[in-house]
Amino acid sequence: MKAYNWLVWYVVLVKKELRKVKKYRFQLLHAWIVEHFDPCRVADIGGGKGLLALFLNQSGFQSIVIDPFDQSLPVKYKNLNKQKFKISKEESVPRINAIFEKEMAKDFNLLIGLHAHGSNMKIIEATAEHKKDFILLPCCVIDEPITPHADINWFDSLEQYANLLGLKTKRFELNFRGQNKGFYSKRET
């Protein structure tokens, strides 16, 4: 029992807060983006229902979801303080219902891929080609144009690929359970 109490003390006092559940990933990524980027035109690639784009738009960004599947915003969500909010049926985010192609990047300043199956490498390539910024939280190699090898870390290989294309990257970690690690490239202005 003493070991358990020590662990709780360590997590509460040293780590400051417990990990959030995965459902808060959009709220946490939104807060991180607002802290690290000025408002700009954003492509939320593989953005699903559009909750991240909604949060960004409320913070002065101009976000568009690019996703081949047309989905409605969720009807409700909780903020990081666990307050409940309803989203009216009239509320929406702009969408492009298509698979992301590199040429689409020219209309945006920041490309975001939160578990963007089949688009991670395209996001990196588009960023290099069109001189954009990107944020990636990659999870797996589904629909990517490479064959995964058991002894190669997908996350590391993506970051190395970005570096080979001349992009300087930095890593970050968000406070939620699951694949919460990402990397980004931000052009110096």
Write the topology of this structure.
Elements lengths: L1 H13 L10 H12 L4 E5 L5 H8 L3 E5 L9 E3 L5 E3 L8 E2 L13 E5 L5 H11 L2 E5 L16 H11 L5 E4 L7 E5 L4
Parallel strand pairs: 1-2, 1-6, 2-5, 6-7
Antiparallel strand pairs: 3-4, 7-9, 8-9
By DSSP (H or I, 4+ residues per run), the number of helices equals: 5
Q: How many strand units?
A: 9
The CATH class name reads Alpha Beta
Q: Give the biggest sheet.
A: 7 strands, mixed
Provide an overview of this structure.
With 189 residues, the protein is an alpha/beta fold. It has one domain: Rossmann fold (3-Layer(aba) Sandwich), CATH 3.40.50. Helix content is 29%, strand content 20%. It is built from five helices and nine strands, in the order ααβαβββββαβαββ. The chain has helices at residues 2-14, 25-36, 51-58, 120-130, 154-164, and strands spanning 41-45, 62-66, 76-78, 84-86, 95-96, 110-114, 133-137, 170-173, 181-185. The chain has a seven-stranded mixed sheet with strand order 5-2-1-6-7-9-8, sandwiched between helices. Strands 3-4 form a two-stranded antiparallel ribbon. It is globular.
